[in-house]
Amino acid sequence: MSASDNKQSNIIVSFNSSLQNYDATGLAELIRTGQISREEAFDFSVQQIEQHNPALNAVIRTRFDKARIEMKAADSDAPFAGVPFLTKDLMAAIGGEPLGFGSGAMKNYRPPVDSELVKRFRKAGLVILGQTNTPELGLMGITEPKANGPSRNPWNTDRTPGGSSGGTAAAVAARIVPMASGGGWWWLYSYSFILLWPVRFKAKSWFATYGAVSF
Predict the structure, then answer these.
(1) Cβ atoms 161, 167 nearer than 8 A
(2) Residue 59: beta bridge partners?
(3) Helix-strand-coil percent breakdown of the chain, rounded to 5?
(4) Do residues 180 and 172 lie in contact, with contact meaning Cβ atoms separated by under 8 Å?
(5) CA distance 140 to 16
(6) pTM for the model
(7) Are residues 169 and 119 in contact, defined by beta-carbon separation less than 8 angstroms?
(8) Could you tell me the mean pLDDT of each successive run of 10 residues in the chain, 215 residues long?
(9) For residues 48 and 177, is the Cβ–Cβ distance under 8 A?
(10) Which of 59, 84, 164, 211 has its CA at 20 to 30 Å from residue 44's CA atom?
């Protein structure tokens, strides 16, 4: 195997399906106009997780059975109705389900109710398939928590996807899902997406809009 072949084998990003060419807005439009069904979008993202996540460790928990029920019940008038989505294992609490903050000390914690952030994701019609990896308590610029192991950069699995939203950035860059949640200190949040360019993200400076989003 040549050096170029070995480098290519470390790349997880692929475009084997036309669905991978759409961001969340584009996929929502396909679903809204009946060009694909919610079920097709759901099954495709599940297949992407099962195929690519073993090499990336971007997704640390899945909830496919619950998500399928929620997908069918999503409001058709919501802007992202039926679009597959992942939440970060930090701040985005799903009622009754694990939220570990990337820490072994929190492995048994189950918040009693959805956080405001998750409520808004659901109201937008997003279908939460699982949770993405994060460094312990979101404090590092690399995503290598002892509790869940390191996430890998899909452009080169010998490299890091950064942090603290490394799992989220890797999942979106690998086209596992079209959109996922991130958050934390602004410089750590943007760091993951710099390492995984051309992943697109939208953020507002906390210095300018402190308290605009309730977690």
Answers:
(1) yes
(2) 132
(3) 40, 10, 55
(4) yes
(5) 33
(6) 0.83
(7) no
(8) 46 66 94 96 96 96 98 96 96 94 92 96 98 89 91 91 89 93 61 50 41 43
(9) yes
(10) 164
Tokens 């989505």: give the residue: 85
Residue with tokens 């692929």, as numbered in its chain: 14
The CATH number of 16-195, from 3.90.1300.10, 3.40.50.150, 1.10.260.40, 3.40.720.10, is 3.90.1300.10
Q: Which two tokens stand for residue 94?
A: 């799903």
94: left (phi over 0), alpha (psi -120 to 50) or beta: beta
**Cis peptide leading into 198, omega within 30 of 0?**
yes
Supply the pLDDT for residue 7. Answer: 46
- In 3D, which of 212, 148, 149 has the Cα closest to residue 186? 212
Return the domain boundaries, the chain.
16-195
SS3 at position 100: coil
Chain centre to alpha carbon of residue 12: 16
Given a contact cutoff of 8 angstroms between Cβ atoms, the answer to whether 58 and 167 are in contact is yes
Q: Which residue has the tokens 């460790």?
A: 57
What is the pLDDT at residue 93?
A: 94
